Amino acid sequence: MRKILPAVLVLSLTLAVPAPARAAEPGFEGYLREAFASTGLPGMSAVVTRGDRVVYSGGFGPGVTADTPMRVASVSKSFTAAAVLTLVDEGRVELDQPVVTYLPEFSLADPRSQRITVRQLLNQTSGLSDRTVDIRATQRAADLTGYVAALRDGKPAGEPGARYEYCNVNFDVAARLVEAVDGRPFDVALRERVFGPLGMRASTVGDDVPRGHISLYGAWVRRAELPGFRGGAGGVVTTASDMGRWLISRNRATPDSLPAGSDYAMGWGVESVEGRRLLVHSGNLFTYTAVQALDPATGYGYAVMTNSAALYDDMYDVMLGLVALANGSTPEAPGGQRQRLELGLGLTALVAAGLGVCGVLRSGRWATRRAGRAGWWTGLRLGAGLLPAVLLATYPQWVSFLSNGRTVTWAQLTYFAAPLTITLSVAAVAGLATVVARVRSWRAVTK
């Protein structure tokens, strides 16, 4: 995910309404139907564009159509960047000016924050990081003004402009900058500057969307989205039909204009897919998942969205299949990875529970065999039984570490990671019960 010169993406928002959808190009609908069946998703919508027309759009699952609203999570970042770029196009914002030029309230505890530029926000090179700002405080904010105020005690993790680090704060600050310069709430400004001119009449920023789903050992469970602030970084709700209009408006963007060595900018990244350099951005909330991609070489655009979230993200695989199909390949339908992963976790939980029951029931025999010869090996065996409990106690910390420092909370781990959370909890309880039972039995036989 990577850096794009702003001139490429500056909106020429001249009512860029796509041509009416024609008959689907061969293969897209059949592939998507097969992918939907093999992934076992509760609902999915998708759109494929080429040049200035929609070549396929549709929905799969109960009540899901191309016009069903879906949260698109971090795909929102490209819309926020587009809103900023309309202000650049009007001469009201300069990308290389400090953010405080337009947003004096943006004041952190470190004076380096005063040098963060608008471009650095949109390129994720500002130095802002989940590790050095109070993410939990920002999630409690009621609006973008409160969000920026919650950053007051934070600081950049490094020198502004020195390195790329993905952080939602960048785009929520950018959204507040849009409010400050435009003079209207962000949702209104985005509607008037981006959605409206493109004919995206069903798109908005907010929570007006049905409950999504989480995957629990292969079964889909409907849940309300986890509360938390979602503004410019992840607040957009849209449809496959509207995403078609958006992708058509973006089809001039090209990775060929990326400066050497850069990898993200303006809410888009560059990834190698099927031997091609595509502009891509994915989005993951806790009950919805989405991905968008553009292939500048062929003019194809793709967006796939689902009303679900799980440990394994099927949306990216579905998008890869669409790219392969557009390039003349015959992709296999994705699917099965989520089911196999969660089946493995379920079996692990059952084995852990069984071992815990056996450990408790046989603790007396274990203690009798070791009576009078307790030593380091016995202590090591007992300590091994505590390992799952230690992992559970530090669970958010090591998941955060594996997520490149992104803040992870216990509440979040009961959503997409629910099967892993339950399995680890079962193993921890089983291990603790075995250790306690063995210690008590050993004390009883050595009195």
From TrEMBL:
UniProt-listed Gene3D superfamilies: DD-peptidase/beta-lactamase superfamily (3.40.710.10)
Signal peptide feature range: 1-23
The keyword Signal is annotated on this UniProt entry: yes
Transmembrane stretches, start-end: 343-362, 374-395, 415-437
Lineage of producing organism: Bacteria, Bacillati, Actinomycetota, Actinomycetes, Micromonosporales
Keywords linked to the UniProt accession: Membrane, Signal, Transmembrane, Transmembrane helix
Residue ranges of every copy of the Beta-lactamase-related domain listed in the record: 30-310
Top-level taxon in the UniProt lineage: Bacteria
UniProt-listed Pfam families: Beta-lactamase
Protein name: Beta-lactamase family protein
